[in-house]
Design brief:
By secondary structure, this protein is of the alpha/beta class. It has a single domain, classed as 3-Layer(aba) Sandwich (Rossmann fold). Helix 2 crosses helix 3.
Length: about 230
């Protein structure tokens, strides 16, 4: 059994598809709601850290002062050799902590767009669990540089840096496998003002919340998390 702890930045971006995966495998799942100014636990209190997405930027310290504390916590967890998975904003936070740069992407990417694994991902037991090309969900305007010492693992047409792996137990994913159809519906409701006419923004709520595509995310996530779990020897 693994003790998984996740950091949540807004009410409408929770653990979603991670919940059924963890429950089916007998792992415990706890969270820190940073948006309610909750404090993270001791690093000794969990086995695996997951950092969720959110609409804020990693450099908005004045507006979200808890970001500074969160970065210190992530750095401490990684320094203590805890497995860490960052998703979207979470990946950007890990990249920032590891010495990468987080900047505006050349355009926003919102919707269903294919991601391709890089040659560097071929040697990774984690990314080997994913197809060479697959269709995740995206909702981001920022991007990260690949941190020093990390492997560039995936890219898309709109965003060159979609994933990285640092060592054998730290991963950043810019794209979402964690979203359920309900999650995407919450994003449309909460951040729908971003659905403007642009090359890599799908504006139709019906397209964004497509149930068949959303169901495919769970399968991809399960395979990836199973690979991380095997890497931890559990």
């Amino acid at each position: 059994m693994l003790r998984i702890h996740y950091l949540q930045h807004v009410e409408f971006e929770d653990a979603a598809n991670i919940v059924p995966w963890a429950e089916a495998r007998g792992h415990t799942l706890n969270r820190t709601r940073l948006y309610e100014n909750e404090s993270p636990p001791s690093v000794d209190a969990f086995d695996w850290l997951v950092i969720m997405g959110g609409p804020m930027n990693v450099y908005e310290h004045e507006r979200y002062p808890w970001l500074v504390r969160e970065k210190r916590f992530i750095a401490d967890a990684i320094g203590r050799n805890k497995p860490a998975l960052g998703i979207c904003l979470g990946a950007q936070l890990i990249a920032d902590v590891l010495g990468g740069r987080v900047t505006r992407n050349r355009e926003k990417e919102i919707g269903w767009f294919p991601v391709s694994l890089t040659d560097g991902a071929r040697g990774s037991p984690l990314f080997h669990a994913l197809p060479r090309q697959f269709l995740p969900f995206h909702w981001h305007g920022d991007t990260f540089s690949i941190p020093p010492g990390a492997v560039h693992a995936a890219s898309s047409e709109a965003c060159a840096n979609q994933a990285f792996q640092y060592g054998d137990r730290v991963v950043g994913l810019q794209f979402h496998l964690d979203y359920s159809a309900a999650s995407i519906g919450k994003m449309v409701e909460s951040c729908g003002d971003e659905l403007v006419d642009a090359p890599h923004i799908q504006r139709s709520p019906e397209t964004l919340t497509d149930a068949a595509r959303a169901a495919g995310l769970q399968d991809l996530l399960d395979k990836f998390l199973d690979a991380m779990e095997r890497r931890l020897g559990c």
